[in-house]
Design goal:
heterodimer, A: 379 residues, Butyryl-Coa Dehydrogenase, subunit A, domain 1, Butyryl-CoA Dehydrogenase, subunit A, domain 2, Butyryl-CoA Dehydrogenase, subunit A, domain 3, four-stranded antiparallel β-sheet, 53% helix, globular, B: mainly alpha, Non-ribosomal Peptide Synthetase Peptidyl Carrier Protein, Chain A, 55% helix, 0% strand, binds flavin-adenine dinucleotide, AcylCoA_DH/ox_N_sf (chain A), acyl-CoA dehydrogenase activity (chain A), Acyl-CoA_Oxase/DH_mid-dom (chain A), flavin adenine dinucleotide binding (chain A), flavoprotein (chain A)
Amino acid sequence: MSDTGRSDVIARARLFAETELAPRAAEFDRDEFLPQDVITKMAANGFLGASIPTAWGGLGLDPLEYGELTEAIGKACASTRALLTVHTSIVAGTLLDLASKRLKGKYLAALARGEKIGCFALSEEGAGSDAASVATSYIRKGDSFVLNGRKKWISFAGVADLFLVLASDNGVPSAFMVERDMPGVRTRPMSGFLGNRATHIAEVEFDDVEVPAENLIAGVGAGFGFVVNTALLHGRYSIAWAGVALAQAALEEMCSYATRREQFGVKIGTQQLVQKMVADTVTNVAAARELCRSAGRSLARRDADAATETIIAKYFSSTIAQRATSDAVQVLGGNGCWSGYPAERLFREAKILEIIEGTSQLQQILIADVGYKKFARKA
Amino acid sequence: MRDEVVANMADVMVADAAAKIRGYLRENMTAFQDVELDDEDNIFERGYFTSLFAMQLLHYVESTFDIEVPDDYIILQNFSSVRRLADMVGELKASAGE
Ligand SMILES: Cc1cc2nc3c(=O)[nH]c(=O)nc-3n(C[C@H](O)[C@H](O)[C@H](O)COP(=O)(O)OP(=O)(O)OC[C@H]3O[C@@H](n4cnc5c(N)ncnc54)[C@H](O)[C@@H]3O)c2cc1C
């Protein structure tokens, strides 16, 4: 696609977000339900294959352009953005990087066109941050693998056709593409979440599910070191931009409100203590966006440092999103605490970013390790 | 004779790759790993790196040696020591006709 074609995509995404998503985001959140028409329109616009090369039926956006698209969608509706994170970034992105040609042929084009929806089934009751401890098992049986176990908190599992599943055979982790229609796959919806409420989160059960050997992603044993890390790299890049999106939305809310609301006979935005919150948010959003762009450029070059830059961007961006949305609630006062304004929803959504795709504490551990490697003077 | 020259060139290539990989691994070992890295050491089993580092290594070998590691080579074993990494690079370079 030409440069103009690609910038048209982003303009189209912004328009779609403003006209179709923003006016309905509160309703999706309240109803804990993302309607099928939204998913269908995301697919029809090509957004569900935005970062996938055109050869596989996607739009072929580079990481920077895809980041901008993620921001546009995420600013309007965090649950719709989560579909991009899970389906496009994690599932399609991981297949693109690591799957065999045969497996790509089987699923990638259908995912890019949004004909099939994918989700990422890693977490379990006993395996959250310690993802390598998954108890879901697989064993080889002739030309197939048999999976047993239960996954929890799986975004879009309620509507997905395909599950990227991590399982272990006595400590040897491998990843598989599992179809909803395979006998033994069951999902059970979960509700009552703080944010991402419209993301069809579900538990997934695998009961003697027989998966053809060709559905193995990369090699046996590649499940954690390669597949999960690739999936999390793409997921974290998406979450980094999701943080920028929420912080930008919070910034617009607080600035609009502070320039209109009067107390003590003056606009509240003229108060220096309010200005501090606005100034910090402007600064933090600009810094987070630059970290995301820098990670995007590294990803585009496939730099060995891309993973580190992405972790830093994700950590910073989700931290400042939490701060910015909290300050937006503060600037809006009582209205900030009421669902008649978007601030409270942004605040709830931002907290989720500090938990998913590796909690902030896990990012801090990884970043500190980078610090020691890079900056400890060698004796 | 020609075969021998080609074979020698391949050895030089693998040795060169090993040196680069060794340097990269040393650079990336944390400040808490004050050990000598042997070419045969299994870097994951010895705890010098966690498997989190595997993907960074994949990106490193692909970008440094201008190769694409095919999906059936993507197993931890091929990335587990300087020797295995260098052999894999040599093999992939050779099969790409370089
Ligand atoms: C809205 C939502 C959507 C999700 N979607 C998906 C999905 O699509 N697919 C999927 O597989 N999972 C999904 N998850 C699960 C998510 O990935 C996990 O919740 C996350 O990995 C954290 O795991 P945990 O909840 O078990 O927390 P725990 O790992 O139990 O962590 C609890 C606390 O302990 C801290 N902690 C843990 N270990 C350490 C340590 N070593 N050092 C310091 N602090 C530590 C954590 O930082 C955290 O603060 C989703 C979760 C949510 C909330």
